[in-house]
Structures
1.
Amino acid sequence: MESINTFLDQDHSARRILKDKLVLAGIIALSLVTISPIILIISKLVVKGYRQISLDFLIKNTPDSYEAITAVANGEIIPGGIANGIVGTLLMVSVASALAIPIGVLTGIYLYENQGKFMANLTRSVSDILQGVPSIVLGLISYLWIVKHVTMGYSALAGSVSMSIMMLPMIVRSTEETLKMIPQTLKEAALALGVPYHKVLLRVMIPTGFSGLLTGILLGISRILGETAPLLLTALGSSIINLDMTKPTSAIPLLIWEFYNDPNMIDLIWSSSLLLMTMILILNIVSKQIIANRR
Amino acid sequence: MTNTIADIKNPILSIRDLSVAYDKNYAVKNVTLDIKKHAVTAIMGPSGCGKSTMLRALNRMHELYENITTEGQVLLNDVNIFDMPAIKLRRQMGMVFQRPNPFPTMSIYDNVIAGYNLNGIRVKKSQKDEIVERSLQDVALWGEVKDSLLKKGSFLSGGQQQRLCIARALAFNPEVILLDEPTSALDPVATAKIEDLLVKLKENYTIVMVTHNMGQAARISDYSLFLYMGELVEYGKTKNMFTNPKDPRTEQYLTGKFG
Amino acid sequence: MNSDKITKLVLFLVSILILMLTAGMVFSLVGGAIPAFKAFGLQFIYSGEWDPSRGRENYGALPFIVGTLLTSFAALIISFPLSFSTSLFLGEYYKGTRVARILGLLVDLLAGIPSIVYGLWGFYVLRPFLIDLGFGGQGFGIFTASLILAIMIIPYATSLSNEIISMVPNDLKEAAYSLGATRLEVITNVVVPNARSGIVAGYILAFGRALGETMAVTMLIGNTNIVPTGFFQTGNTMASVIANQFGEADGLKLSSLIAIALLLFVITGIVNALGKMIIKKFS
């Protein structure tokens, strides 16, 4: 026993406590560094972008280079707005959602109903793989399918298709996860009343899990809202508002890219980014709120 | 007025006015008592009476949670435990939990020696071997695991795992071993083994255990204390308390009126 | 056929769609890549040549494969101290507190910032800052791209580790504390070993994320089509070369870009499958 007590005399308590505290201080410091970019980025967008935001910015099309140069030369803010981008984004996101939501929700239901079965496991794995595919690859796919063979040219539809493939796995996953959280007894109770299966799904399961589904959809939308790369290969861009799905169309991120590449328009990048960021933030906050309310 | 100190000479632990509160709600109120060296002391009481809270205050485990505060003193060999670093105190106060909790990522050997590794105490391999063997022998597990020391402990039965956890606490040669209902998750056979073990261990160690099982307290403890709503109702030799309880509440508890 | 059977059939057919979609993607990518592989064979993968001059076109994907792996690895290494500290902050030290909730919210927001906005910030804020620090040149290159990628993958690296770390059972931690361990010792000896595979999986998935990032990288990496030999050189990644060479591409060049997309698809697929496999094994 003596020998053990001599080990215990090796007392580094003070050193160990100091080390413990130093590491904690380091962790706090590094955690603060981690969140600094978000604060720096958002404040940069606000500071540089707010001056440009006005009603015109929301309802007018992008100016041409000449207008921009003149304004900059006179020390004025660049006239016009990004209405073509806003409308394009809304159009393409809506169509993408209309494509992805039904397919995603139904697939999610299928996965939930067939837990552990081979086809369901395969579908789930494939959906997971799809979620990891880089967006630029999805853009290229949509180019090969839609631009080359359906619309015979760059089009809003091609943009929507690439966006919808991006959203799809997120909706599948959130649908399945949401349904899994609904008590089994609820479904059984409805089935016991002799309600047909599809009505149980439509009247019981989906309404019960609605907030969960909605959260998944909103987060999916917030992800595609800022996507730029696939649109470069599909929707291409347009300087006017376009509502024809088969024609090239603009989007807010596409406009940011154009402004970035055009020295005359450079002032517009911050306000456009600010608007885009605000839309994404609102979607995020709304979905967080829905999750919070559900608890 | 009952004598809560119970006339113990040279106590190893002297608890003075110990109170423990969750936020502002007191779970243990003004407990004062002495604990005898090399004896088994059982803490009894109905569930929610503060038994575990009191036990966990003795090695300052409550400090892991911000909303728990303590008042009063606990002297370990005449030194106030609140005056030393908690990490130093805990080496002298081994703890065994309700559910067996061997470290799943470590081998049996590493589990026993975990205290040394965790504390960064340098020990020669041969001495480590010695400590592991002695500790496992102390809990009568050596014979069962000596050929699988480098395996993970997950294949052991619940009772064996709990004995491994006791060995882990013993490896430090602590002054006191605190056990929080150590058999509540075990079957009767494994429970009996642990009880035998504790009786044997008191030759070299002081044992303080929480139990919800009166039979267990009667079988193995030398001293018992009865807590009710956070207050110490009665404390004394187990034999006396079970045959002749002084407080009506103790009597009610022992006859199964509550709890 | 009764209505229940129809419902089940509809569900089945719709979910087949995802399989067909994915199979179709592979089919189209392979089909599109065939001319490039026919022209250059396997050399396409390990050739460092990217020469679009008419008549002697020669395309190899090596500069982009190297650029992609280099930037993604570097991003992973740079982001590790930040995201791992944040995971410990959220999942262990300040678990369940208000300050952790706010920090977690801010980290989540990092995931919401579009790639192009990261690119702008990198171009107008980070790059000048690096030049001021004396990194020389125009501030473009592998290193700058890796820095911005590191920030971009933080939320992905953090969220899984943080969740797994917070799930390490309390009784194991208490057992270690009862042996006199400090919090740091509990973390290194109990929390991290118990959460290890989940943490590894999280970083693999974050790496997969970095491989495919396009806009921010395109805006910062310098877009030179040569195999980078140093960390501070300019380069190009698989995703960024597709983005900035696509507009003018047809024929063999288009096929080569599709082949690069196919390779990127395969690499990210393998990386993600690996991550998911570890998660599945772990849970």
2.
Amino acid sequence: MPAYRPPRIALSEITPEGCFLSRRAFLATTAGGLLVAGAGARAAQAAALVAPKGKYTVDEDLTPEGDVTGYNNFYEFGTGKADPAANAEAFKTTPWTVKVDGLVAKPREFGLEELLALPLEERVYRMRCVEAWSMVIPWTGFPLAALLDKVEPLGNAKYVSFDTVVRPEEMPGQSGFFQPLPWPYREGLRLDEARHPLTILSVGVYGKTLPNQNGAPIRLVVPWKYGFKGIKSIVRISLTETPPPSTWNLSAPNEYGFYANVNPAVDHPRWSQATENRIGGGGFFGANRRDTLPFNGYADDVAGLYAGMDLKANF
Amino acid sequence: MPALPKRFHSASVWALYGLGLCPALAAFYLGATGRLPGNPVKEFEHLLGIWALRFLIATLAITPIRDIFGINWLRYRRALGLLSFYYVVMHFLAYFLLDQVLNIPAIIADIARRPFITIGMAGLVMLIPLALTSNNWSIRRFGNRWSRLHKLAYVIAAAGALHFAMSVKVVGPEQATYLALVTLLLCWRLARKPYLKRKRQAGARPIRAPETEKAAG
């Protein structure tokens, strides 16, 4: 933990990009204006977002920030690992609202400011990608259950469905001739999984608001499931009675299940899931091939959710 | 097209070997010193595989380039073919040593169970006899059988492009490009004989070249 903590900037205090851009046009006409505008842009990209440490942490080295924010799967910005960081700069995350509806007593839209006012905490989680690589990431966020409580799910609500924003004009992967997936990107959880204390909506990483490539301004983190369940840039959360469709499952049902719990005993059809490559090991020889743990090391917390279930069939 | 003076031919082939190995050397240096971002082993493995495929395609492009444009780069074909072999071997070694870190049971399971790895391994195995016979002695020794054996290069290129396309989560423009190039080259094999025949007839009619040649011979 760094000794110096920059003051926390409320998101409401960050200049909206529209205002910022028009200010920049004005500043650009004045001497030295560009320098000022440049400093403003950096602040808006990654505002400090410091939250107290929660009880969940991992006794492993953190993945360097440059890898966490530079090595991403976010197909809305391209399929290469470096594409999101390269292509997400024009993505506008203010203003932002999340619509919560479906089988709830009080459906409504939440402004991002309201979500940021929920009690935030920092949690260090393992992140295991279905592609057999992994990271250790300090997220800032709040339990999804805290948001669900606000809308009061009805008795027949069994599942929670999530949608990513669709903005072809700002997301190059959503426009043009080649589009890797049907949009919007969708994910889902069982309601008990969604309400589990480990399941969070993250609004920050490494003590700053989420960079666009990591799913700004708000994304799901479910640390015992493969990374693709962690849907990014969420605009809608809906409670349903039947299992919601999920993008990768629709795209290749034999490769990506609805549950997608990290499981070293169930291989992906095209590669083994028994081991994983820890990102950020520094070159070939520092690279860390390590055993993958059942439920990504969170079995004590979550195995009970799946008692009696055949995890090979429900992969 | 100005032809390269003959005295530079041999040097240009050696330069091709040298240049051709540069991507692997540069990537190895960056990876070994921790300067490849993200997942360095995968980056390196992937780079070696892509270059193997590029050299395979370049090898097979020599004949159509000569047929269609009349440019004879036959002297580079052996170097290109051997470079593709070297890259495939390095690609495998990166997987074996750096990625799987000598975990032989895992590798055997991969080869047996994952079709894209099975296909890739088959490509590597087929390349071995071609690499071993890429010398003048073998060409003289095996004659017609040498040409037939080396037609395997088409099967290997197809295996390589398929291996690449099947390895990714979503087939994108990059994989589609390699598949298309290999398909084109395979189609050329089928179209080649009729094309050359027509070209010969068209060229022959006004000057009656074949007859003249025969008469001279």
